[in-house]
Design a protein that fits this description.
Blueprint (H helix, E strand, L loop, with lengths): L4 H15 L4 E3 L8 H13 L4 E3 L1 H17 L4 E12 L2 E11 L8 E8 L4 H5 L5 H16 L4 E8 L6 E6 L1 H22 L2
Parallel strand pairs: 1-2, 5-6
Antiparallel strand pairs: 3-4, 4-5, 6-7
Helix pairs in contact: 1-3, 5-6
Amino acid sequence: FKPSRSMELGTLVHKLLLQNETAWATAPQVDRRTKAGKAEWEDFCLNNAGYTIITPEEENLVIGAVQSLKGLMDSALEETEVAMYWERDGVQCKGKVDGICASKGSATPMLIDVKTTSDIHSFDRDFFKFRYDIQAAWYSAGYEKLTGNMPCFFFFVVEMREPFLSQCVMVTQRTIDKANASIDTSLLQFKGCDDR
C-alpha cells in the first residue's frame, strides 16, 4: 500500500499538531537537469533520509492547516495518540485515538480524531463512505470498556487549502449506536471464521 500525497500531507499535519514533530524536509529549488542541481538534490535526499520530502508550497499547507486546527481546539488536549487495548465479545481489540480532551464545564470525556480534506463541504457527504461512524463507535466503545465512562466523539476537520476552513463534527449517540450494531454483526462473522 502506497499512501497518496494527500494522505502523506495529512500524516504530517497529525505529527505536527499532536506530537509537535516536524516529520518533513522542504525540498530545495534546484534544477535537477543540471549536474550541479542533480548533485545538490542527491545530497539533500541523503541528508534527509526517513523524512517526507515536500515542496515549500506543501509546507505552507501543512502549517496553515495546523494553525487552523489549533484555533478550533478550545479544549486542552490531555493526551495524544492514545493506544487502547480491550476485549469485545471475546475478541481482542485495539485502537489509537488522536486525542483525549478535557471538556470545559462537563465531566464527559471527549475523544477526538483529526481529519484533513480537500473540500470541507464533502466531509459530511463522505462521512459514511469512509466509515468514520464505525471509527467513532469503535474508539468510544474501547474507551468506555477501559474507563467505565462513555465519551463524546468529535472529528476536527481541516481543508488543505487556503483559507484552511475547519470544523468540529460531533458524532451523535444515535450514529454511534447504529455503528455499534454494524460492528456487532461484523464481530459475529469474524468469530464464525475464527471458530473454523
